[in-house]
Write a structure and sequence with these properties.
Layout: H1 2-29, H2 35-49, H3 52-56, H4 71-88, H5 98-117, H6 133-144, H7 150-160, H8 163-179, H9 186-200, H10 208-218, H11 225-258, H12 273-285, H13 291-315, H14 324-333, H15 343-361, E1 376-380, E2 392-395, E3 405-409, H16 419-429, H17 434-442, H18 457-473, H19 480-504, H20 510-521, H21 525-537, H22 544-563, H23 569-577, H24 584-599
Parallel strand pairs: 1-3
Antiparallel strand pairs: 2-3
Length: 600
């Protein structure tokens, strides 16, 4: 009897082993039985090709590696992309529902967009004054590479030994773009070189990577000083042998590229510039709007918002015979709206930003059903890049919650941070703007891993601009001058529609665009120049804000109108945020389904 039971047990075990083997082989080499397994497989495949993604997830796999950005790795990624798309299409979309269907449609749209974008792979600019590998490696290491023990510290330094390879491959990519006629304008290359020198030229002890490493190392109380000094020595040798020579090679390359550059600002100068710009519009806004339509929309928005600003300024006793730009520029220079131009003033700005964020954060449970668990802190934009950075930016929290979200405030030009504009910027970058949307997306449960990371610019930036308006509607902008700050920020987004299409569609020069923005918005000239040069190297991205905001407001108004007393703002916001950053056409589908469910 016992041997019979054992025989059956062996058969059962063998059968289970065979079934598991079939399942694993199918999962890895063929079409997985279940679509969620397919989603997770492709994410893992991509992560193994791009090990820095594991670090972004808060994991320490391949913690001593940097991504392989060689042409050969790029080919592998492209083949993986095409194979993934082909495999996705083998699943029956009609049989899917709920989150499985949403995941399918998000991935389908993302893959189509990426495959189309590969046609323009050698267009655009890999390295710009606003970012690229030469800056990104510093942000990545300082923001995401934690040092919790000696091994982490060794991995930090070992990672930096790969910089030479990564930078050289980056320059291969830049050379392909150059050969295709995509050379950044001369005024952009000058600022890239300025940034490179700001990183490379300081003494080793003042280098951003060295400072970050030493600061993190100082917090390891379990390591004795001899061990710490040994690690610091390893770091210094690596900087001298690998990191600094890599920066030197990039500086030399861009000095030579500068001799080949012209001052033409728009992508219209590329061989397929018109088609490339239309692709960029579709990619960032997830709409089929044309450049001409968006240019006209921008002009209409500028007129509407200027009228609102003039009405408020008229009530405050200002001479509204002047242009809005002139009035706003005068306000931004008024001492009553400025902090002292010193370290003390800059420190106070950071403290006041945190107060603004904490104040509104306490009240959000009345307006949102889903709230992020992670918090947000305010930091100054690192000085090595603040001259060319935006007025504010946001870095999402780590997925494991150990690193909070960070709102970076640019304090380079004190006149670019007038007090009346601070609340709006805080609402946009932090609560209830980018921090709410991205932290909630980070914390989504039970969904394929790619859903936590995928981003749609029209959604993310549209939400942040909508958040500015929402904060005003909730009573957090009662002061008329703060309301001016809100409207000035919205005016900027209207102007962006005009100047982005002006530069890349209507062939405006850098100077034309700067003149229009400065005269219309009243922003500090340092901000205006930074903004315009951002649009030059990042075509189409600036269009997403207004397009996304308008769509969210349209959908909210539709829900209010059709649901009447059944409309609930908390539920509406949950519908918008609960699926992460999805394309605007899919957001419309979700809101329509919500209206049908509640209204029926």
């Amino acid at each position: 009897m016992k041997s019979k039971i054992w025989k059956y047990s062996k058969r059962t075990l063998l059968l289970a082993l065979v079934l598991v083997t079939i399942f694993v082989v199918n999962l890895i080499w063929f079409k997985p039985f279940f679509i969620n397994h397919f989603y997770d497989r492709i994410f893992v495949e991509f992560a193994f090709q791009n090990p820095q993604l594991f670090t972004q997830m808060g994991q320490k796999f391949y913690y001593d590696e940097l991504d392989d950005n060689s042409p050969e790795a790029e080919d592998i990624n492209n083949k993986l992309l095409l194979g993934t798309y082909d495999l996705l299409k083998k699943y029956d979309r009609q049989s899917l529902s709920g989150q499985k269907l949403i995941s399918y449609d998000i991935l389908d749209q993302f893959l189509q967009d990426t495959i189309e974008g590969n046609k323009y792979d050698d267009y655009g600019y890999s390295q710009t004054q606003r970012g690229g590998m030469y800056q990104g490696i510093i942000s990545f290491m300082s923001d995401l590479h934690r040092i919790d023990d000696e091994d982490d510290a060794l991995d930090y330094v070992t990672r930096l030994t790969h910089i030479g390879r990564v930078f050289d491959n980056t320059l291969i990519k830049v050379s392909k773009q150059r050969d295709n006629g995509a050379i950044p304008p001369d005024f952009i290359i000058i600022k890239i070189l300025e940034n490179l020198h700001n990183i490379r030229d300081p003494e080793l002890k003042d280098n951003e990577l060295v400072k970050d490493f030493n600061e993190k190392l100082s917090k390891l109380t379990e390591l004795d000083e001899n061990k710490k000094n040994s690690l610091k020595s390893f770091m210094n040798v690596t900087m001298e042998k690998h990191v600094q020579p890599a920066y030197d090679r990039m500086i030399t390359y861009y000095e030579e590229l500068l001799t080949q550059a012209d001052s033409k600002a728009g992508v219209w100068k590329f061989a397929k510039g018109k088609e490339y710009y239309q692709y960029r519009i579709k990619s960032v806004t997830t709409t089929d709007y044309t450049a001409e339509y968006l240019h006209t929309l921008g002009l209409q928005e500028v007129d509407r918002i200027e009228l609102q600003i003039k009405n408020i300024l008229d009530e405050q006793g200002y001479d509204t015979n002047k242009t809005v730009g002139e009035l706003l520029n005068e306000m931004s220079k008024n001492p009553q709206f400025l902090y002292s131009d010193d370290d003390e003033g800059r420190e106070q700005i950071l403290k006041d930003y945190q107060v603004i964020i904490d104040e509104i954060d306490k009240e959000m449970d009345n307006t949102f059903g889903i709230l992020p668990k992670g918090k947000v802190v305010v930091k100054r934009t690192p000085e090595y890049r603040e001259k060319t950075a935006a007025g504010g930016s946001y870095s999402r929290p780590s997925k494991d919650g150990k690193k909070p979200g960070i709102f970076y405030a640019n304090l380079y030009d004190i006149t670019a941070t007038p007090k009346f504009g601070m609340r709006t910027l805080a609402f946009h970058e932090a609560v209830p703007g980018h921090h709410f949307q991205l932290a909630i997306q980070n914390e989504l449960q039970g969904l394929p891993m790619f859903r936590g990371f995928m981003s749609t610019t029209g959604f993310t930036e549209g939400w942040a601009l909508y958040a500015e308006r929402l904060a005003y509607e909730l009573g957090f902008q009662n002061d008329p001058f703060s309301d001016i700050g809100r409207l000035q920020a919205e005016l900027l987004r209207g102007v962006r529609l005009v100047v982005d299409t002006g530069i890349h569609h209507k062939k405006w020069t850098r100077e034309q665009a700067i003149k229009y923005m400065f005269e219309t918005t009243g922003l500090a000239m340092s901000d205006v120049e930074s903004e315009i040069e951002r649009y030059i190297v990042w075509p189409g991205q600036a269009l997403a804000y207004k397009v996304g905001m308008i769509k969210i407001l349209e959908l909210r108004e539709k829900a209010k109108t059709e649901l009447g007393d059944k409309f609930n703002i908390r539920t509406f916001h949950d519908v918008v945020l609960r699926n992460g950053a999805i394309p605007l056409n899919m957001l419309e589908q979700q809101v329509n389904a919500y209206i049908n469910d509640i209204g029926s």
